[in-house]
Amino acid sequence: MFRRTSVFRRASRSVYAALAAVVVLLAAVVLLAGSAASAEPPVADRSESGDLPGFSHGTVAVEGTTLHYVRGGSGPPLVLLHGWPETWRAWAKIMPSLAQDHTVIAFDLPGLGDSTIPAGGYDKVTTAKRIREGVHKLGFSQVSLLAHDVGSLVAYPYARDYPTEVVRMAALATPLSGFGLEELYGVSFHLGLNQAAAPVPERLIDNDDVSTYLGFLFSNTRYPDRIDQAAYFQAYASPARRTAGYGYYRAFAGDAADNRANADKRLRMPVLAMGAEFSFGLVVANSFRQVGDDVRGVVAPDSGHWIAEENTAFLSACAKLFFGPQGVPAPSPELANCVA
């Protein structure tokens, strides 16, 4: 009896020792795997974009979120920032043209499109920092910015706070918070609704209401049929995505205070401020002239708010001039202020 017990104890000790060795080995493997993962480049999920030949999708991890982007072309980097309620697809029609001369990087704003949803940080300073971190991790330290709507509100603190990193900036279809945007709150009810504290818009706009709500906003423009509305209905079909979108609006008051407090940091780089014939006109330029020294006001003809989709040809021609080499003359008077 005693001998069997002793043998059993010796065997048990051998088994425990073996198990301990296995645990140590597994821990080492995990640590090595973690080290290897941390050494990996921050870009993942690169796959060819089937609906946009020559472009690929990717993701890059930044503080608080992971940014999805679509990239193509070669040359000086040009970062595209969309507005609400859209995604990177807002630029799809113009990206092939821009990619002829630039490395085009169209981000989904944090929380929107295929970017992951951060717990907070929808103010435009934080968002600009996240986009800038993504830009750096993609290997670029100096870029130009082309932005629309809420994206323009993000582009401004990017250019303001990191002036040596932004060569040129184009802001489309919105005045700045603190410098004119508040005066337009009565233009559309969504500006107030989206800013309402949770859970007001969350409960008023259910999944079944998305196409009605967003479709109404898209319908009040010059050419609603030129907008891929179905793609945006799908992009905001998730309640969490809609809340992320509202987050950008709920930050407007804080954005305005920050913009006014830092207005002395004037933009020195050239700024293209574009409104549309049927939306805002020169209001955008008048706003940015309050914070910039070299602001060129442009009005996109025969277009409503969604310029990249409604008048792609004009925006493409203007962007090629503005982000292109100096000395290229404008082919028409409408493009005169687009010249580099």
TrEMBL record:
InterPro entries registered for this protein in UniProt: AB_hydrolase_1, AB_hydrolase_fold, Epox_hydrolase-like
Molecular functions per Gene Ontology: hydrolase activity
UniProt superkingdom: Bacteria
Keywords: Hydrolase, Signal
Gene3D superfamilies: alpha/beta hydrolase
Signal peptide residues on this chain, from the entry's feature table: 1-39
Domain AB hydrolase-1 as annotated: residue spans: 76-311
PANTHER family: EPOXIDE HYDROLASE
Protein's recorded name: Epoxide hydrolase
Organism field: Amycolatopsis bullii
